[in-house]
Amino acid sequence: MTLDIIGTIESCYPDKFGIPRQPGLAPSATATLRFNAPFDHPDGVRGLEQFSHLWISFVFHQSPARWTSLVRPPRLGGNARIGVFASRSTHRPNRLGLSLVELVGIEYDPAPILILRGHDLVDATPVVDIKPYLPWADSAENARAGFAPEPPPRLDVRLSDECQQTLSARPDGESLGLLIREVLSQDPRPAYRRHKRDERGYGVRLHDLDVQFHIETDEHPGAHESVIVVDRLIRMT
Ligand code: SAM
Q1: Which protein residue has the closest C-alpha to ligand 1 atom 11?
Q2: Which of 219, 201, 222 is nearest to 210 (CA)?
Q3: Of the residues 28, 50, 82, 194, which has the fewest C-beta atoms closer than 10 A?
Q4: CA of residue 218 to ligand 1 center, whole Å
Q5: What sign does the dihedral 60-64-67-68 (CA atoms) show?
Q6: In Å, how far from its chain's centre is CA 6?
Q7: Residues 5-41: tens digit of each pLDDT
Q8: Are 186 and 20 in contact (CB under 8 A)?
Q9: Mean pLDDT in each 10-residue stretch from start to end of the chain (237 residues)?
Q10: Which domains does the chain have, with CATH numbers?
């Protein structure tokens, strides 16, 4: 059985590192979906504009093709192991991903281009199917969500004065500032680094910026409050 790649994602996330674990956690994340021939006829999306959200089925093309029956979800600290089908791991048979995203609009050049928001897809992600989201069919009111009963915790994010000035000088500064806060509040670091003193500096690429940050942890007994401090925003050429 082969799957056709019907389209490709152009994403605000150039790299996997830093992308939230699920869609909706960074509502300001933007992307476009461009269709590949022969799936690029405008008829294919006729009526799609009537839906606010879409299911995107895609391939984790940046994950290796190998998979194992047990995986170690970051949500469980990166050590506990759980069945691959009880996870949303990227290391799975057929490497198929599924994301619920907001459909902001459709443009035509003349092939249709879907304008998306709130996604969790790295740039150049291959798309194998699109379906309209039906709230009455696709959301289960009393569903149990196992080891992930609610969204991941968020950290406070502080931007240095230098960063604030960089953003205020940009026409997209406000939306970029929102995206930076939404993404970094998810604490992009590897799970095993999160519960100990961490002096490292990190960088997440968002749009054309390298967002450099470090963690400050309040070490008072019983406090252990961590804050993400954004030190610099470096424009990538
Ligand atoms: N919502 C999808 C699902 O449940 O199938 C994806 C969940 S997966 C845990 C989300 C992660 O996949 C992101 O944090 C990102 O690092 C990674 N990712 C996004 N696009 C990818 C791609 N094309 N190839 C490999 N990994 C990708």
Answers
A1: 21
A2: 201
A3: 50
A4: 32
A5: negative
A6: 21
A7: 999 999 999 999 999 999 999 999 999 999 999 999 9
A8: yes
A9: 96 97 98 98 98 98 96 88 97 97 97 98 98 97 94 94 95 97 95 80 97 86 78 92
A10: 7-138 (2.40.30.70), 156-235 (3.30.2310)
Distances (CA, A) of 214 to 159, 160, 161, 194: 11, 11, 15, 12
Give the number of the atom of ligand 1 that is nearest the alpha carbon of residue 124: 23
For position 165, what pLDDT does the model report? 96
How confident is the model over 125-143, as pLDDT tens digits? 999 999 999 999 999 999 9
Lining ligand 1 with CB less than 6 A are: 16, 19-23, 60-63, 88, 90, 97-99, 120-122, 125
CA distances from 152 to 21, 80, 147, 230 (A): 9, 17, 11, 20
Residue owning tokens 């991903």: 97
Ligand 1 centroid distance, CA of 57 (Å):
11
Query: Quick one: which atom of ligand 1 is closest to the CA of 98?
Result: 5
Tell me 222's DSSP state.
T
Backbone φ and ψ for 229, nearest 5 degrees, come out as: -110, 120
How many angstroms separate the alpha carbon of residue 100 from the centre of ligand 1? Answer: 12
